[in-house]
Write a structure and sequence with these properties.
The protein is built from 2 helices and 3 strands. By secondary structure, it is α+β, with helices and mostly antiparallel strands.
C-alpha cells in the first residue's frame, strides 16, 4: 500500500500457468528449441514440478517442502 502499487493475489493454478507460459517463451527463444517434453523444477518457497509437452502443460504439482521444512527433515 505504501508504494502505491496495485497488487492482485492469484491462486496456485494461475501462478503455475503464468510460470509455465514464461518458461515456454524462454525455451522457444532458445536456438536449440524443439517441441518436446520438459520438466520444470522450482526450488523456491514450496517445491513445484511442472511437466510440459511442447507448449502444452501436461501436469503440475506443488509440494509442501519449503526451505524450513527441508531443514527440519
Amino acid at each position: 500500500m505504501s508504494t502505491g502499487l496495485d497488487v492482485e493475489v492469484i491462486d496456485v493454478q494461475e501462478e503455475n500457468r503464468l510460470t509455465s507460459a514464461a518458461v515456454v517463451e524462454y525455451l522457444k527463444a532458445s536456438p536449440i528449441w524443439v517441441p518436446r517434453r520438459f520438466l520444470v523444477v522450482e526450488w523456491a518457497g514450496q517445491r513445484r514440478l511442472t511437466l510440459l509437452s511442447g507448449v502444452e502443460l501436461v501436469q503440475s504439482g506443488t509440494f509442501a517442502l519449503g526451505s524450513i521444512r527441508s531443514r527440519q527433515a
